[in-house]
Specification:
The protein folds into 2 domains: about 130 residues, Serine Threonine Protein Phosphatase 5, Tetratricopeptide repeat; about 70 residues, no CATH class. It is about 65% helix and about 0% strand. It contains 11 helices and no strands. It has about 220 residues and is mostly helical.
Length: about 220
């Protein structure tokens, strides 16, 4: 289940955690299993409807409500409604200030809205809470690149690959290939050629090492 999807990258929650959330909702709030499943659906419209129903449940505990707000915000952002997603992320973080996922996802939305300093504050908090998150390192790398801090951006992209492993390396390889700066194999190995391609990419504010949503799906699955 993806909690953050943007250009091939996502926060993920294990099925075990989803089962815990389901059990908690059913046990304490009377929410139906269908409503909870809809909130975690891959379909954005269904996700918005299901999460909205959960948010309206007066018996929902703050932690679960925070997650519902974050999931609805994700669906809105995936539909391109970035400004509309922000209030939901604000509520998610207000209800659960320790949500590294919500902080990182809000940081990405702020980055996309060119509110770089605000996004940096969020992603730094997210990394304090979850220092080994590949996705937060990737978010910070994008912000650093946009700020012209090439060395720092490269360092964070490398950290993202360190923690994200072969899958994330493949995503970068595919994205760099799409940018025309990498011609090697999509094999998940961080080689000198991949590093050279990243060095070229971070030097341009318009180069994104992550592929577009539909690119690389077969190669990186």
């Amino acid at each position: 289940m993806a909690l953050r999807t943007r250009k091939g990258q996502s926060w993920r929650v294990s099925s075990a955690l989803l089962a815990v959330v389901l059990a908690a909702c059913l046990a304490t709030t009377g929410a139906s299993s269908n409503t909870v499943a809809e909130c975690f659906s891959d379909n954005n419209e269904r996700r918005i409807a299901g999460c909205s129903e959960l948010i309206d449940n007066p018996n929902l505990d703050p932690s679960t409500k925070s997650l519902a707000y974050a999931m609805r915000a994700l669906a809105l952002s995936l539909q391109g409604a970035l400004a509309e997603a922000l209030p939901d992320y604000d509520m998610a973080i207000k209800l659960d200030p320790s949500s590294a996922m919500a902080l990182n996802n809000r940081a990405w939305v702020l980055y996309k809205l060119d509110r770089l300093s605000e996004g940096m504050a969020d992603v730094e908090r997210s990394l304090t809470l979850s220092p080994s998150s590949p996705h937060a390192h990737d978010t910070r790398a994008h912000i650093k690149q946009a700020q012209g801090e090439k060395t720092a951006a490269l360092r964070d992209y490398e950290q993202a690959m360190r923690f994200g492993g072969e899958h994330l390396v493949k995503l970068y390889q595919c994205g760099l290939e799409a940018q025309g700066v990498y011609t090697g194999p999509i094999d998940g190995l961080y080689t000198r050629d991949v590093r050279r391609a990243l060095e070229l990419c971070v030097g341009s504010p318009t180069c994104d090492p992550l592929p577009a949503d539909e690119e690389c799906r077969a190669a990186t699955s």
